[in-house]
Amino acid sequence: MTSTSPISPTRAPSLTRALKSPLSGRLTFPLVCLGVWLLTIQAVTTIWPFAVDVLPTPWQVAGFMWDEITGNTLAPQNMYETFWISLQRLGAGMAIAMVVGGVIGLAMGLSKSVNAFFNDWIVAILAMPNLAWALFCSLAFGFGDTGPIVAVVLTGVPFVVINVREGVRNAPTDLYDMARAFGVPRERAIRHVLIPSLMPFLFAAGRYAFALGWKGLVVAEVFGGQDGAGWTIKFWYDAHRAYGVIGYALLFVIFALFFEKFLFDRLSRRFFRWRPSANATAEDPAPTDQQRTPQHG
Amino acid sequence: MADIKVENLHKEFGAGADRVVALNDVNLEIGGHVFVSVVGASGCGKSTLLNILSGIETPTNGSVTITQAGHPARAGYVFQAARLLPWRTVMDNLLFVQTDRSEETRRRCQHYLDMVQLGDKAKKYPGELSGGMQQRVGIARAFSTEPDVLFMDEPFSHLDAITARSLRTELHQMWQETGKTVVFVTHDVSEAVELSNRILVFAKGGHLTEDIPMNLPFPRDSSDPDVALAKAEVFRIFEKIGALAVR
Question: Considering the entire predicted model, what is its pTM?
Answer without folding.
Answer: 0.74
